[in-house]
C-alpha cells in the first residue's frame, strides 16, 4: 500500500501533492475557464455596474471588420432582407461599436437560417478578444419548424401518425441568450465607454446575418402600464377555442402532438389513438417555444385560459413565458407557474389576488406563444454545481493524502490535515438546506421528489460530519458511490430544469363559462367501458401469428420506433416488392430462445442484442445469411469487425443493425486553457496525466465505469492494441497468457495502480460536465447524453479516435469493440427469400437514412440512430466532423468473436484486473491461474457442442477474423 502511495506521488508534481496544507497554492478548474454568468452578474451588482440607458446602435454587414467580398451577398440574394447580408459559415464576423458610457448592453442579430437539419446553428461571442463569461462561448440561433401538413394521416390500424417536420425559412431577430435558457433575461455584456470590438465566432451551421444591434437591456412594462398603453374599456364577451395540436409552429422540431387517451381530451376516440394534445415530455427543455396562430374577430380585452396536464415525474411546479406576436406583453406574464396536478385543469392567467389578466388584441391574426422557462431554478442549479465541485476537490485532496488507498484498519485525524473540514461540510449542508426551502416556496409548500433528494443529501452530509475522521474511508458516501451525495445531486441537476407541460386546447374569452376540463363520473365510466370493449378489435403491435402471405417481424424497440418502421414499410417496401409485413413489439428478447424451442418464432427479429444470434445459431435456430447469393456483395456496407460475434466458421447468422463506438471525449475549453494536446496514443495519455491531476482533474477509461465486473468492452481493446489475442487459432484454448496479451493486461492495471486513473466513476457524463474528468473514453450513449442534455458545454467538447499503441512503422493500432443491435432470420421462417428481401430493405442506405432522420427530427437528439450501415451513417443529421472521427475509429472496429466458452474468458479477465489492482497480485501469477480455469471451461463447453470428445479435439472451432470477412469482398489479406 505504501509503495502504491509513493508511486502515485512520483506521478504528481510535488507542489500539488499536499495542496490542502496550503490553500493559497490550490489550483483547480476555476483557474482554467471563465466564471459562470451567474457569478459575473453578482459581481456586477456588488460593483455597482448598471444597465446602459437609452442607447441602440445598428451595425450593417457592409461595415463589418475585415469582410471578404465573397461573404457579402447582394441585396437581390438576401432572401428579401432589402440590403446586403453576410454569409456566415465556418468563419468569424467582427464589428466595431462606440458606446456613450460604461455599462451593460445586450446584443441582437437579424438572421436567416440556411441549415435545415436538427443540428443547431451555434456561435460564440467575444468582447474585445475575450469571453466575458462562460455562457458566451455558446449562442444558439434557433430554427422555426412546422408540420408538413396540419392534418394527420392514419396507420394501418386507424391510429393517427405524426407528420414530417420542415423548417420555415424566414428572417428572425434574436438577442444573445444563455444556451441553457436558465437565465430569465437576455445575456448582458459589459462595454467600456468608447470603441469596442464584438466578434461572433462560428461553431456549427450556416446562416445569413443582417444587422447586428447593440442596445440597452430590454425592460418590460408592468401590467398597470400595459393597461394604460391600451386605453380601451371594451371587454369582449366571446369564446375562441384553439386546439393545441393544430395551427402551430415551434422553435424545436421535436415538440410534437401526442395521442392522449381518456374522455377528458378533445377530440378522443375509444378505439383509435388520436393526436389530440401537444407537448408533454417533448416540451420540457427550457427555451422551447410553441406558437399558435389565432384569428380575432374584434378589438378588445380578452382573457387567456389553457387546459393543461402537468405531471412532472418528480412533482413540483413548471413555468411558462407568454408572448403575443413575439413580445412579452408585460412583466407579470414573463414567468407564469403551472402547478403539479394529475388531472386536467383549466389554468387562467391571473395575478396573485386571483384576478384574470386582460390582454388587448386587435382584429386580425395574432400569434400566441408559450415558452418553457426554467430560470426560477437557476439559483439552485448554480448552488448545487458549486457544492459538487467543492466536494470533488475535497475528495481529491483526501485521495492525495491517503495515496488513493482505502484502509479501514487505519485511523485518521482529519483536522490535522484539513482544519476546516467540518466547517466545509456544514457549509455545504446549510447551502443545500437553503435551496430546499427555496424550492419548497417555489412549489407553494409541496414537497417534490427533487426536494426529497436535496434533503437526503443534506442528511448524508450531516451524518458524515458527525465522524469526520472516518471520511477518508467513506468517500463512497460523499463523492464516488452510486448513492453518494455527489450522485444524488448530479441526478438532481438533470431533473430540476425539466419543464414538461401537456396542452389540450386554450381559450381566448371574456366572462364566458368555459367547458369543464374533465367530464363527470358517468361520462368517464361510459368512455372507459367503450375503450375496454373496443380494445379487443383495435389493431396493435402485439406478437400474434401472421397469415401465410405476411412476413412477421418482432422488434425489440419502443412503439415510436415501430410506428416509423411500419409506415416506411407500408410506403416503400410492400409497394415495391409486393411482400406484406407485420411488426410486433417484443416485450423481452430473451423469450426468442423459448419461442424458437416451441416453434412459435417470427420470421425475422430486429433490434436484438448481438449475443442472441450466436446462441440461437449454435442451437440450429438461425438462417445462415451466407447461403444467399448476394450476401457477400451486400456485406460491404458494414464494418468487417462487426460481423465477428455473429459468425461460426464462415457462416453468418445476423446483420449488424446499430453499431456502438468508443472514442475519446475531451473538453476543448479546458485542454486549450491548460495547453494540453489531445492525446493520440497511450504514451500521450500518460504524459498529460500530471498536468491534469495538478489541477484536480483526471482521465477516464471505461474500466472505471464498469463496476465490479469488467466486460470485454473495457478489457479487449487493450489486448487487441498490444497485438494480443483472446483465443488460440483452433479455439480450444485461451491466448491471454501469451506475451503480447500479458503486456496488455499489465498496462491496463498500471493505469490505475501507477498512474492513478480513477477506479470507479458512477457517471462519466456528470464528471465531464463538471470538469473533474475533462477527457476520457466513452461510447455512443455518452455522446447522446452530451448532445441532448448538456447544453451548457455544447460546442466546447469534441471527440477524437481511441488512443492506441504506436507501431514501428509509425501507425497507431487503436482497436476497440463496438457491440450494437442486430437483425436475423429464423430457420422456421415461412419464406427465406422474402425474409432476406426485408432484411436487405431494412438495412439499406435509403431506408436507414429515412428512418434515422425521421426519428431524430420527431423525437429529438436523444433518439439519435447509430446505423451500422456505413453509407447511411455518413448521411445522418450529425455534425460532419464527428461522423468523420467515428468512421475513422470504425476502421479499427474489432468485436470479440463468440465461442462456447467466451463468457469464462470475459469473467477471468475481469478477475485478473481485480486481483492485480486490489490485491496487489503479480500479473503473471494472476494470468496463469485464470488460464487454467478458462481452458478447463472451454474444454467442457466444446465437449457439449461436439468439438471435443474425451478431452481430444474432434474438429477445430475456427475463430473468425477481420481478414476472413474482408475476403468476402475480394480484399487481399495485407498480411
UniProtKB/TrEMBL annotation:
Q: Which residues form the signal peptide?
A: none
Question: InterPro entries, alphabetically?
Answer: Bact_solute-bd_prot1, SBP
Pfam families according to UniProt: SBP_bac_1
Q: What is this protein called?
A: Extracellular solute-binding protein
